[in-house]
Design goal:
- It is globular, with a radius of gyration of 14 Å.
- By secondary structure, the chain is an all-alpha fold.
- It has 5 helices and no strands.
- It has helices at about 5-30, 35-50, 55-70, 75-90, 95-110.
- α1 runs antiparallel to α2 and α3 runs antiparallel to α4.
Length: about 110
């Protein structure tokens, strides 16, 4: 692959990460005033975008956030989940071990 193509892909991935971070921030602002169920489509959209762009830890965490929303979590609890999702979006690692690490962090949050 040509260096320009690699640079273009990295620039595109940076733009995707910025878009996802903005979406997460918007959800975080709305969360205290919105029913958990009504936030689920936004989380699903983040999951789909992350999946299409190979942001595997973000896909993993989005599944956990969706489960948290299904249980009705909101407010400060949801803020914590969104923070983990933001970290997953920003993660440079996209391998299975990174997904496992984020899944373990989410499991601890679930148990807590």
């Amino acid at each position: 692959m040509m260096p320009q193509a690699i640079d273009g892909e990295l620039h595109l991935l940076d733009a995707v990460r910025a878009d996802l971070a903005a979406r997460i921030a918007a959800i975080d602002v709305r969360a205290p005033y919105t029913r958990a169920y009504d936030l689920k489509p936004d989380i699903n959209q983040i999951r789909l975008i992350a999946h299409r762009n190979g942001l595997n830890p973000a896909v993993t965490v989005a599944h956990f956030v969706d489960s948290a929303l299904s249980r009705g979590e909101h407010g400060a609890l949801l803020h914590g989940w969104l923070s983990v999702l933001g970290d997953a979006v920003a993660s440079e690692r996209q391998d299975v071990r990174a997904c496992e690490a984020f899944a373990a962090a989410c499991s601890i949050r679930l148990a807590g």
